[in-house]
Amino acid sequence: MAHSVFYRLVQLPWIAFVAYWLINSFKTRTTVRKESALSRYGVMLLLASGYALLFSERARIDGLGDSLVPRSSASAILGVVLTWLGIALAIWARYHLGQYWSARVTIKEDHQLIRSGPYAQLRHPIYSGILLATIGTALTIGEWGCLLGIVLVLTGFSLKAMKEENMLAEQFGGAFEEHRKHTGFLIPRFR
Q: Less Cβ around it within 10 Å: N or C end of the chain?
């Protein structure tokens, strides 16, 4: 019974996250350059597979539904807190990115290099926040399939972030290289 309460508590921020993304997806600038469809769908396959392992009971076959960590209130509470913090970071980052956000790797019309908010310490804070929320959710659920889900999501976001880095380096040159020196990839770098 208590486990289902914690599971509901990790679902709420994910629902808020999706709602925020949908509402704000219409408030973006025109795309002037984007990644290839093949590149995009490879990453999407990794992410979809990872989240299926995390949220779908049907994906928990052949031991993937077995407990990875002992179910306790302490681990579930920690998982809930990490999930909420991760989603908060992703929403905060999305707010600062504003009209330059896109679900795919793009350069927008009159694109600016964002260095405010979480972008002062992280180059990819949306991915960092989503990863933290993924880890929190996995800890709350506590099954082997969730660990595999984390690996797939981490791989997908790392590949996507590297593509973004290449595109941003081409677009902003030295300014992006300077930003790169003072910020972390997925883990914050404090000066």
A: N
The tokens for 178 are 């300077």
> What are the DSSP calls for the chain, one per residue?
-HHHHHHHHHHHHHHHHHHHHHHHTTS-PPEEEE--HHHHHHHHHHHHHHHHHHH-GGG--TTTTSBSS---HHHHHHHHHHHHHHHHHHHHHHHHHGGG--SSSEEETT-----SGGGGTBS-HHHHHHHHHHHHHHHHH-BHHHHHHHHHHHHHHHHHHHHHHHHHHHHHTHHHHHHHHHSBSSS----
DSSP string, 22-42: HHHTTS-PPEEEE--HHHHHH
Q: What is the residue-level pLDDT of the chain in tens, covering all 191 positions? A: 346 889 899 999 999 999 999 998 888 889 999 998 888 999 999 999 999 998 887 766 776 767 777 778 899 999 999 999 999 999 999 999 999 998 889 999 999 999 999 999 999 999 999 999 999 999 998 888 899 999 999 999 999 999 999 999 999 999 999 999 999 999 987 76
Distance CA(26)–CA(128), nearest Å, equals 23
Whether residue 6 contacts residue 77, with contact meaning beta carbons closer than 8 Å, is answered with: yes
